[in-house]
Design goal:
six-stranded antiparallel β-barrel; alpha+beta; Elongation Factor Tu (Ef-tu), domain 3; 6 strands; 15% strand; single chain; 246 residues
Length: 246
């Protein structure tokens, strides 16, 4: 009988131990589930708070957009009210643009005309420059010839200082005084041997049709000659440009 009760007690102890183990496992599982649920609740709560903030910001942006839409609507109404006056301004601007284009075309034509005149003036200037250069060369040639004649006259004065007697020349010789050397008292003429001049020939000198003196030929070249001024010539003196004839 005692063994029976001991067996029952042992079985009860085992059953109690097994039941306690099962209860402990169930309690641990419930604790883990609770902690998991609490963490999820916290996360959901935080998301809810963030959503509230986002909703508030969205509402603020919506209000701002509504204000901008209202402002744009007002500006559109103003623009539509000004459209009528804008048409007349556009027509005025187009008219002014056409006038400006016409003035530009006129100015372009004037510029082209000035360009043509400039080219003509340039060509005339080049021609004048060429003529001046030619005259300068001719002047230099005359000066060289005068210097040559002066040297020849000086040489002849040294060789034959005494005056030679006058000789006859053919009539109708006409020329002009090119230059006058008052130190040596002689002139250079623009006529020479080809015109019939000979050494010691006499020529009368006139200015404005009035006689101013005489010159005697000292030396001749083909187209020029050197002549001494004869005594008794005009007190005003023979000058370049005076006429000579016999």
């Amino acid at each position: 009988m005692i063994k029976f009760f001991l067996g029952i007690a042992l079985i009860g102890s085992l059953a109690t131990a097994v039941l306690g183990y099962m209860v402990a496992n169930q309690r641990n599982a419930m604790r883990r589930e609770y902690e998991k649920t609490a963490a999820q609740l916290k996360a959901v709560t935080e998301q809810a708070e963030e959503s509230k903030v986002q909703v508030a910001e969205s509402q603020k942006k919506v209000e701002e957009l509504r204000a901008k839409i209202a402002e744009a609507t007002e500006k559109l109404a103003q623009a539509e009210s000004q459209a009528g006056s804008g048409d007349s301004r556009l027509e005025e601007a187009e008219r002014r643009a056409k006038e400006a284009e016409l003035r530009a075309q006129q100015e372009k034509a004037e510029i082209e005309d000035l360009g043509s005149k400039l080219e003509s003036e340039k060509a005339a200037n080049e021609a004048a420059t060429a003529k001046v250069e030619s005259l300068l060369k001719e002047k230099q040639a005359l000066e060289d010839n005068i210097a040559k004649l002066n040297n020849e006259l000086a040489r002849m004065r040294e060789v034959a200082p005494t005056a030679a007697r006058a000789v006859a020349m053919r009539s109708g010789i006409r020329g002009k005084v090119v230059s006058v050397n008052r130190n040596w008292n002689f002139v250079v003429l623009n006529v020479g041997e080809k015109d019939g001049l000979v050494e010691n020939g006499l020529l009368n000198v006139y200015r404005g049709g009035q006689p101013v003196g005489k010159v005697k030929i000292v030396s001749t070249e083909a187209n020029t000659a050197v002549a001494d001024i004869e005594a008794g010539s005009s007190p005003n003196g023979i000058q370049p440009g005076d006429d000579v004839l016999n």
